[in-house]
Amino acid sequence: MPETKTRGGVEFARPAAGETLVRARDLACHFEVSAPLLTRLLERRPRTMLKAVDGIDLDVRRGETFSVVGESGCGKSTVARLLVGLYRPTGGTIEFEGVDLAALRGRAERAPFHRKVQMIFQDPYASLNPRWRVRDIIAEPIRTHRLLTEPAALRRRVDELLSQVGLSPTDADKFPHEFSGGQRQRISIARGLASEPEFLVCDEPTSALDVSVQAQILNLLKDLQREYGLTYLFISHNLAVIYHISDRVGVMYLGRLVEVAEVGDLFARPLHPYTRLLLETVPDLEMSGRDRQPMAGEVPSPIDPPTGCAFHPRCPFANDRCRSERPRLRHAHGAAVACHAIEEARLPVDSAGVPLEGRRA
């Protein structure tokens, strides 16, 4: 029999872990950043498109934390907003529990999806309505999805949610400005849990917080995941946070996924040249004396991305094929990597077949 839990006074069955909850295929999101129409007509300029997400394949398994990491501007937050339905994809498909979201028409058909998928935003100071009391902020999803209608039951549920995130029920009658940044983020998490979701998208939820508070929020998220079997998509540029919270990691560069691996494998044996260079920014606390290569070059513009592999202008292993042909994610050495150099075995390997340039001492 499936394990059962009680949430909001109602028993529910915890779904089996491991199955694919969210699947994206060839997902793309382009934004028009053209000059005004009259200017374009007078100067005979074409429309200009910014390719924030440029065709990615992504699978998030139920019960795991899948993290997306990369430099600023690589499209991480756009992926987050696509998966919760805040942005409409330019191309590709998104499936949640096997249902294509594009096939859902109207508010009534999309309501179950919006109840099961919630988002925790980056800035706890901007994501809460300053005119509302905390009780109303947390109760809003419950009222919207009509999970509880009786006032006393609604009040008890809000008190329960506040207690779950480490706040006091007496905080329900306060306004957001009366709390610190970490406390506000706890309120945001309580609001995210209010609709009893299965999938939480966390868009850099700790980047605006002090380091000590970051650890508290991360531990809270892990505790809630164990308690309710939640699935997370976690967005961050902080590699220490990624290592602490993740089960699997997708490395993103200029709107594309270049490597997907288990977190331990990624940090121990990075394969893609970009992943390796990205991990070189982590301080070597053990003072191993190994050679370190600084990140060279600038990220190209997503308005005019390079042909072929987007990383080839900064890659020391690029050849003519890298400059002309876009690599696809392929399985190699226990990971999925989009790299012609890995595919063609152009990098020196050790006895286990792992590229030496992709191995950390």
Strands, helices and their partners?
Layout lengths: L3 E4 L2 E4 L6 E13 L4 H7 L5 E13 L3 E5 L6 H8 L7 E6 L2 E2 L5 H11 E4 L13 H11 L6 H14 L16 H13 L5 E5 L7 H18 L2 E6 L2 H7 L2 E6 L2 E7 H6 L4 H7 L40 H5 L5 E3 L2 E3 L2 H4 L18
Parallel strand pairs: 5-10, 5-11, 8-9, 9-10
Antiparallel strand pairs: 1-2, 3-4, 3-6, 6-7, 11-12, 12-14, 13-14
Helix pairs in contact: 4-5, 4-6, 5-6, 6-7
**What is the strand tally?**
14
Strand order of the largest sheet: 8-9-10-5-11-12-14-13
- Counted up, domains total 2
For the residues shown, what is the average pLDDT? 87
Q: Gyration radius, to the nearest Å? A: 22 Å
Poorly predicted regions are: 7-15
Class from helix and strand fractions: alpha/beta
Major beta sheet summary: 8 strands, mixed
CATH topology of the largest domain: Rossmann fold
Describe this structure in words.
By secondary structure, the chain is α/β, with parallel strands linked by helices. The chain has 2 domains: 21-246, Rossmann fold; 250-283 and 294-358, no CATH class. Helices cover 31% and strands 22% of the residues. The protein is built from 12 helices and 14 strands. It has an 8-stranded mixed beta sheet with strand order 8-9-10-5-11-12-14-13, with helices on both faces. It has a 4-stranded antiparallel beta sheet with strand order 4-3-6-7, with helices on one face. A hairpin with a 2-residue loop joins strand 11 (248-253) and strand 12. Helix 4 runs parallel beside helix 6, helix 5 (151-164) packs across helix 6 and helix 6 packs parallel to helix 7 (211-228). The protein is globular.
